[in-house]
Amino acid sequence: MEYGKAWLNYRRIEEKSFCKYLTGIYSQVEDDKINSGIKELNIAFEGMYGIKIPFSRWETDSGIQLKISSDLSKEEYYIHPNGNVFLIEGGSSTGILYGIFQLLRMLMEETPAKDIAVRKAPDNPLRMLNHWDNMDGSIERGYAGESFFFQKNKVMVNERTRDYARLVASVGINGVVINNVNVKQEATRLITKEHLKELKKMEEIFAAFGIRLFLSLNFAAPMELGGMATADPLSPEVKVWWKEKLKEVYEHLPRLGGFLIKADSEGRPGPFTYNRTHADGANMLAEIIKPYNGIIIWRCFVYNCKQDWRDKKTDRARSGYDHFKPLDGAFLENVILQIKNGPMDFQVREPVSPLFGGMSATNQMIEFQIAQEYTGQQRHVCYLLPSFKEILDFRTYCQEERDTVADIVSGKTFSRSNCGMAAVANTGNDLNWTGHDLAAANFYGFGRLSFDMSLSSEKIAKEWIVQTFGSIEKIVKNISQILLNSWETYEKYTSPLGIGWMVNPGHHYGPNVDGYEYDRWGTYHRADHKGLGVDRSSAGTGYSTQYHEYNARLYESKENCPEELLLFFHYVEYSYRLKSKKTLIQHIYDTHFEGVDEVETMLELFEEVKGDMDTDVYNRIAARLKEQLLHSKEWRDIVCSYFYRKSAVPDEKNREIY
Ligand code: GCW
């Protein structure tokens, strides 16, 4: 069996007004990206209209023309009809490539040719995917099979690499980190000659789609590879070692974007061992790769993972800010701090990390997770775009205007150009790329949103559905509804009001309310017989004070705190009345029952499209939805009975609680 095409399906379409331009393609420039673009046009036109069009060496007064325009910024495109010619202009061949994909998207949506006129530059300079692929082929938090980049400790470059690059470029992603941030064993050796040859081939394929290759680095490589006694970033010998090593890397991979580093985090080596700061560590590497236009992306996921659960003063949520805020302004221009969207770890609901807007003199980018580690592991539907939109729209109050997370990561707030959005990837070598067919909407959607932050979750969902499944009204309507409600549904039947966790330790799938409660990871809900939640106000851990005034004040009190985050910021008694007038305990019961009912509705909506969808795809999705229903019941029952037993307050509606 062959792997699928995801959203690059190019099925036959009814709307044919564009066909008048299909007399020939002329391109002013010729390079690898233009070649990729022309190939794509051909695949697409053949699929959509059954037409092959000739490539013309001479400019004619009809057909499709690809041109560079000096009015456009590098990655910007402008597609529009001009008499008998349809123009695809770009600030560079990358811009043209993006223009081509935009045109194809609109044609797939059956837009009449006369209505296609779009000019757009990407909103974020960097739009990246981070793969957590290991060289043995496994994927950390991978839910769609094994790696298609690595198998048996070797780099793999083949047709699938190209098809992956097509998917990535089609949604405007321009950087990919191929290996796990936990760089161990063979992965440490990725920067040696042995692997660089294959990586070069991958770099070239990526480059033909406007994508820059990045690698994750092991901070202790001077010891593990170089046999040195130290990896101290200020040691002259260590610097010399890195300098030579990275020179060799760049000789093989001249277009390498740079490196992603997880240091002093969850047992990974870093500058702390040598009493150096993260700025010392990041700057040492950044200085070395500056001549190659390389970038160091340094992760801020630094916290104490050996906490004593009885210690109520230490708060993992505080740690990113506590570690990095004092270093604001200390990083070189080619260093970017990569910050997870929330202060904990990709829970279904978290506040926005206070580092956004907390640092004004440092390059920052946001890290989302489309690998659904804590949101159903691609066995449950959880369309994350509504959550991403909320996060990006969050006002930080770091200044009077242009202060949202979107403004900050896109570089508007502090006039920066080394910044943007990254997501932990959700792909693997499964035939449908993402395990759950509907999880591909997160891959598609993340890319589209990183390119154009003004797009709504609804618009993105619709685009994806039409390209993936076709434009039959019922499919569009029902699957949109399934996707758009899925994040809140998932939230309802899992952990309540921002508290997070309550999952089985290790693999993180399925409910276990106390799974992490008495553990060392700093992830507590603090439930007892009277209530639950963590006091993170100034009287508690003080986390709320890491925000600017307006938000700090909101989070400070139970009354003002946005209710969806109530238990993240406060310890609340079961009898506390929420704005709905329900008690907290009744809210927990009700939302859990509602969540399950909503999954039932999803299944019904899905059953309605049975006749309109490819049978195999239908069966695959239906099977996952059934599993989701079963597991949502498990979540409901375990969470409800836990809190019933703790609180001894019965359900007002007398439903079965075990
Ligand atoms: O969410 C946690 C994951 C780890 C991951 C870590 C990180 C790659 O459980 O698997 O490690 O975060 O982001 O570094």
TrEMBL record:
One of its GO terms (cellular component) is extracellular region. This is Xylan alpha-1,2-glucuronidase. It comes from the Bacteria. GO terms for biological process: xylan catabolic process. One of its GO terms (molecular function) is alpha-glucuronidase activity. SUPFAM superfamilies: (Trans)glycosidases, beta-N-acetylhexosaminidase-like domain. Signal peptide: none annotated.
